[in-house]
Amino acid sequence: MATMQRHWDIFCRVIDNFGDIGVCWRLARQLASEHQRLVRLWVDDLNSLKPLCPEISAQCDRQQLAGVEIRHWTPSSTVDRVADVVIEAFACDLPEAYIQRMAQAADKPCWINLEYLTAESWAESCHGMASPHPSLPLVKHFYFPGFTERSGGLLREHSARAAGPADRSSDHVLKISLFCYDTAPVGELLDTLAAQDSPIECLVPPGKPLAAVERHFGKPGPWLEGTLRITPIPFLPLDEYDQLLRQCEVNFVRGEDSFLRAQWAAQAFVWQIYKQDEDAHLVKLDAFLDRYTAKMPDETLKSVCQTLFHAWNSGLQLERALTDFLAHRHQIADYNRQWRAELAEHPDLASALVKFCSTKV
Ligand code: TRH
């Protein structure tokens, strides 16, 4: 049934970290469970998927999970068939043999390059653009996720529809999750948290965040600094991580996928953006801040958020910025519920993608 586009292949090459595979795994699962597509996820590094999805075997070339066929993509992977829709995630370069088979197919597949999420307005004008192959009868379309209806939407499964609770009791411990790169000013963050009057628990997953904390203290955790407790936690399976973001009152997130999840959790959040050459990421950071803070109820809240995001990403003047942010965290969370509701008015990425592809047959 080529017109219904039942068969989807998603190709994912892991560059570093977990964002690329996190996005692809979410998309694959959602296309299978919410759109009844037959999805194969081709990933070159199963070890990167395993922490997010501990059920998989990193040794198995072909396995089925959550309705998705997970294939280990190696240079020797053979092409048994081409799908109706082929997603090349983040310009990962499809195997040449696969492209040749696409060109030979009687019904040409819909070929999508799934791009990184950005709030920059140029992405809207490039969304959906067609790029004909220079020598083969194939057309690739550029698909840009984004925050407006002029973009390709945001990944949001049915399970992402619940926000976190608003726990405002004065006697509770303020729970903070810390997911960041090793360039973040973690020492200053911990010193500032330790200087607050009320009890705080900071939860730190392994990898770059925990390494940064260990470097600061010079010994393994858990750590106690006044009323601040810093607790190492395991790397959680993806859905449990989403749950953690809903439960913490402040979430430090990074990259692309945890950044978006923090917005669905609708608690206060701080974003460390993935660094790019020539500081291109700073433009991307400001593009997001402009959109995100545009409807904040007052200039103070706007400035508090912008100042902390900049301080966290630059490493400069964090103490004051963080103290102000913590003092305003309830107003920020209230606003984030509104922001989340506005974003949720647009079609989610998987639904929008299904629709987009159906017009490209
Ligand atoms: O890991 P990241 O830094 O990924 C980055 C970005 O995607 C960036 O844009 C990309 O260019 C680069 O990788 C190569 O941050 P991100 O995007 O938040 O991805 C982390 C994933 O890990 C996300 O899907 C959430 C998941 N995760 C868990 O499942 N459990 C956990 O305990 C934690 C901390 C994260």
Task: Explain what the structure shows.
The chain has 361 residues and is of the alpha/beta class. The protein contains 13 helices and 14 strands. It has helices at residues 19-35, 46-49, 96-104, 122-126, 186-194, 208-217, 238-247, 257-265, 280-293, 299-314, 318-327, 329-343, 349-358, and strands spanning 7-12, 38-43, 62-65, 68-72, 85-89, 110-114, 130-132, 139-143, 174-178, 200-204, 223-225, 228-232, 250-254, 268-272. An eight-stranded mixed β-sheet has the order 3-4-2-1-5-6-8-7, covered by helices on one side. Helix 10 (299-314) packs across helix 11. The protein is globular, with a radius of gyration of 21 Å. The chain binds 2'-deoxy-thymidine-beta-L-rhamnose.
CATH class placement of the largest domain? Alpha Beta
Describe the largest sheet. Answer: 8 strands, mixed
- Count of spatially separate domains: 2
Strand content: 15-25%
Give the H and E element order: EHEHEEEHEHEEEHEHEEHEHEHHHHH
What's the name of the CATH homologous superfamily of the largest domain? Glycogen Phosphorylase B
Count of separate DSSP helical elements: 13
Unreliable stretches covering 5 or more consecutive residues: none
Q: Please bin the fraction of helical residues.
A: 25-40%
Molecules bound to protein: 2'-deoxy-thymidine-beta-L-rhamnose
Average pLDDT number:
96
What is the CA-atom radius of gyration, in angstroms? 21 Å
Major sheet strand order: 3-4-2-1-5-6-8-7
Class by alpha and beta content: alpha/beta
Distance between the termini: 12 Å
Look up the CATH topology of the largest domain: Rossmann fold
The counted number of beta strands is 14
What is the level-2 CATH architecture name of the largest domain? 3-Layer(aba) Sandwich
Q: Shape, please?
A: globular
